[in-house]
Specification:
This protein has 211 residues and is mostly helical. The protein has helices spanning 2-24, 32-44, 50-74, 76-84, 88-103, 105-113, 119-128, 133-173, 175-202. The longest helix is centred in the last third of the chain and has 41 residues, at 133-173. The radius of gyration is 20 Å and the shape is elongated.
Length: 211
């Protein structure tokens, strides 16, 4: 699925990112972080517009948070039943519940980017726990803005500053970042190869085919 989404990303840009981040905030298995880094790289390569990419990702994430919060608010009993069941989802919900009770608005903020796997479940549990909507929204907007800035910014800088990304990957930004850096390196080589072909064609030389 990731490969397919990356293939169509240059064509659908901000609209695709809006959908991807929205679904990821509802606990759908969507590679949102990888997509944002790749979109930043495409923007720097001239295939997308950077601020469109960032805005699309941010709007989708905020909408996804709001949907998750209100699902939790309206379906308190359902969330509690999900927590009572076994499995990974129940474990994530229980962990998110404890995190939300301990940290409040800070749980919302940090779960957007620092402990992002908990993010969708914090949305549900914050709603189920009757957290104030204003407090939740403030934490959501601040956290999602940080998330988008980090990952789109990493993608925008990856084309020329890959060396700076590896310490972040090594120190815990995560597997998604490592995958995205590898993807962007491949994109960089592809763009360089195309530039070489165009330069060779303009000089009347026979371009060397990529192996």
């Amino acid at each position: 699925m990731t490969e397919t989404l990356l293939t169509i990303l240059p064509d659908y840009g901000a609209y695709l990112l809006l959908l991807v981040t929205l679904l990821s905030c509802l606990a759908m298995p969507i590679p949102a972080s990888v997509m944002m880094i790749a979109a930043g790289g495409f923007a720097m390569a001239g295939d997308l517009t950077l601020w469109h990419v960032a805005l699309g990702a941010l709007v989708g994430a905020i909408l996804g948070d709001q949907l998750g919060f209100h699902i939790g608010r309206l379906g308190t009993g359902h969330v509690e039943r999900m927590e009572a069941k076994g499995g990974k989802q129940a474990y994530a919900l229980r962990k998110a519940t404890a995190f939300t009770r301990q940290r409040g608005i800070w749980a919302v903020f940090f779960s957007r980017w620092l402990v992002s796997p908990l993010g969708p479940y914090v949305n549900f549990t914050a709603g189920a726990a009757k957290m104030g909507w204003i407090a939740f929204t403030l934490g959501s907007i601040a956290g999602e803005a940080t998330w988008v800035a980090i990952y789109v910014g990493m993608g925008a800088g990856a084309m020329d500053q890959v060396a700076y990304l590896w310490p972040l990957v090594r120190d815990g930004i995560g597997f998604n970042a490592a995958v995205a850096v590898a993807v962007l390196l491949g994109l960089r080589l592809w763009h360089l190869h195309r530039a070489h072909q165009k330069q060779a064609a303009s000089k009347g030389e026979t371009p060397v085919k990529a192996q």
